[in-house]
Write a structure and sequence with these properties.
Blueprint (H helix, E strand, L loop, with lengths): L1 E8 L5 H18 L10 H11 L4 H10 L4 H8 L11 E5 L5 E8 L7 E6 L3 E7 L3 E7 L4 E6 L11 H11 L3 H10 L6 E6 L5 E7 L2 E6 L3 E2 L9 H7 L1 H13 L5 H8 L14 E9 L4 E5 L4 E5 L7 E5 L11
Parallel strand pairs: 1-4
Antiparallel strand pairs: 1-15, 2-3, 2-11, 3-12, 4-5, 5-6, 6-7, 7-8, 8-9, 9-10, 12-13, 13-14
Length: 330
């Protein structure tokens, strides 16, 4: 079992994005209508909500739509308004020892992984891991603001956007943690998610977001798949959320632990997972150094490093099921 991760530099949607979407659309479409097409909002509502909440993204949305199959379904999908549910088992942490760095593990089903690390210039330069064709799982902008998401561990759904588009929107329009928190307080999400933000000044925040509650912002530097407390016992047990959170709390409390040491911890149990036959496992570890504006993608035996100054298009083939020994991120 393996995945490909490709670093792609395309400032504005063009041939590279179009070729990707042509390959990916059949799987996207199958997922999007998996609960029944009637469950998804109509195109008028979808575009109206994007216009209301994220108007800065409309030129990009229109450009993507023009490159996509000419039907309403693609526009409904690309709006990310009220999509089907998606959940994962991610871990997030911020270290402020040395260069302030946001580190995350993304745990998910490899069949639904875009596998594209993209550098774009929609509203401003942004580097991030693509999801749902133009949303982001995590990323950083040229202002030195880094953002990453994790499922919030609540069995609720409502009316709102898919979280990857919110991550994209924050990075396209915000410069600081304060601005990011203001956006998260007003943009509705369709499920419970935790988002961690870190800016170049070292300021950070963790946001607990849900469709049925006001946004809550805390200063904790570690998060997994529950928020203030466990509210979905079965899911927390399945993903070992409490065990991972306890480990992360111990790591970030260690004032001698630098970013390279924290990355090393992310590549081992209990944070690193190979439970792919249960539907999720660690697809990558990302480390966003906001002072140097550099990103490292790290696996037990590979790594990829990019920055806004040097972004080389490259590809990594990652074997997912293999023994994991000791690794130090040099």
């Amino acid at each position: 079992m393996f995945v490909h991760v490709r670093a792609v530099n395309e400032a504005w949607p063009g041939d590279k994005w179009s070729a990707f979407f042509e390959r990916a659309w059949p799987l996207y479409r199958s997922w999007f209508v998996s609960e029944g097409e009637h469950k998804r909002a109509d195109v008028g509502t979808s575009v109206a909500q994007l216009t209301k909440h994220m108007p800065e993204l409309l030129p990009v949305f229109n450009a993507l739509s023009a490159l996509s199959p000419d039907d309403e379904m693609t526009r409904r999908f690309l709006s990310m308004w009220c999509p089907p549910p998606y959940m994962g088992g991610c871990s997030l942490a911020v270290t402020q020892t040395g260069n302030a760095t946001l580190v995350r593990n993304y745990d998910y089903d490899p069949r639904y992984f875009d596998g594209r690390l993209v550098r774009t210039e929609f509203c401003k330069p942004v580097i991030g891991m693509q999801d749902s064709a133009w949303g982001l799982l995590d990323g950083m902008n040229a202002d030195g603001l880094a953002v990453a998401l994790a499922f919030g561990g609540r069995d609720v759904s409502g009316t709102g956007f898919g979280v990857p588009l919110l991550v994209r929107y924050i990075l396209e329009t915000c410069e600081t943690v304060k601005e990011a928190c203001e956006v998260m307080a007003r943009v509705p999400l369709h499920m419970a998610y935790t988002i961690m933000v870190l800016d170049r000044s070292g300021a950070h925040a963790t946001a607990f977001l849900s469709p049925d509650r006001p946004a809550q912002f805390v200063q904790q530097r570690a998060a997994t798949n529950h928020q203030v407390r466990v509210e979905w016992d079965e899911y927390a047990a399945l993903t070992r959320s409490v065990m991972r959170k306890n480990a992360l709390d111990e790591y970030v409390a260690d004032k001698s632990l630098r970013a390279r040491d924290l990355i090393d911890r992310f590549l081992k149990a209990p944070l690193y997972s190979q439970r792919f036959f249960d539907g999720f496992g660690t697809l990558y570890t990302a480390a966003y150094d906001v002072a140097r504006k550099k990103l490292r993608l790290v696996w037990p035996e590979k790594r990829m490093e990019v920055s806004f100054d040097v972004f080389e298009e490259q590809e990594a083939k990652i074997t997912l099921l293999r023994p994991v020994g000791r690794y130090l991120a040099k």
